[in-house]
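Example record

The entry below shows one chain as it appears in the dataset: sequence first, then structure tokens.
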Amino acid sequence: MLKAKDIMQSSLITVKEDTTVIEAINILGQNKITGLPVVDDDMNLLGLVSEKDVLSIAYRVLAGLVGDTMDAKKIGDIMTKDVVSFRLDDNLADICQCFMNNPFRRVPVLRNGKLFGIISRKDIIAHAFAALGNE
């Protein structure tokens, strides 16, 4: 049975809680990704920030609901803190089931409680498609 470690992306792009929203938007855009793990200096997972999290700030700015701009906002203020994560040896079918039952697009993979990788819906779909011989 395939495990999280078999398909996870281990080349990680992360941000810290004090990263500004503008910096995070630039990182998302430059790397063509839709979310970022938020970690401390020891790679402990603190949360995730997604385009949807950033969009909520953009809406408040555009609607005139906040007086300051996005560059003053920090990722720690908008990130999702209650994050579903998996371990290296967790079953890939369980991760797929999690994606089917939840709206998020990526899950962090932890080793000894620290961020070690990430798996997206796209990774699972690509792997399943390749397993059918349709690389």
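Notes for this example: The chain has a mean pLDDT of 90. The CA atoms of residues 94 and 125 lie 14 Å apart.
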